[in-house]
Specification:
alpha/beta, BirA Bifunctional Protein, domain 2, 8-stranded mixed sheet, 3-stranded mixed sheet, 11 strands, about 30% helix, about 30% strand
Amino acid sequence: MFEVQDWGLIDYQEAWDRQNEIVKDIQANRNRNVLVLCEHPSVITVGKNGHDNNIIPTTEFLNSLGLQVIYNNRGGDVTLHNPKQLVGYPIFNLSSMKEDLHWFLRKVEETIIDVIANWNLVGDKVEGLTGVWLEEKRKICAMGFHCSRWVTSHGFALNVANALEEFNYIIPCGITDKEVTSISKETGTEIDMSIVKQITIESFKKQFGF
């Protein structure tokens, strides 16, 4: 069974807690795959391979902005979430598909490449890096996952129309020689998040055969 949940704008920690509840349910029952779509208030997250020196301002400065730093168990380094960035958490039972996390990651990348093609953007994969890129130099979608007993959690962050200047607070994924971009910046137009969500759902159905 494929199920979509739209959580709207939700605090990052609350979303993580809710993810964990779904993970436990799927591990116990193995009867569904859940795609969560949401947005987060501005927050910096640090994956299990993350380094504090990729966060540029002091803790005091970030606190003055009300910008939390949260350490989690996903793969990858430092990233940032903020409103009008589409965050997706595919909480999937890979035992019902293919017990191969590398395969899963590539499929999610292909899904996002399919999504942004609707705005005539040509997404790339970059050897040795995760996520989706434009011309192999501008990152439009970050990814980081966790997998336990073949159930995935965490996911992707597709920059739709979010404030890219907030990425100046970090060295995204520890990569210093590439830029961050968004669908809105690349197209020079306002983007309707509800349309992006619907296209994303359809692309997941197509790529994963739901």
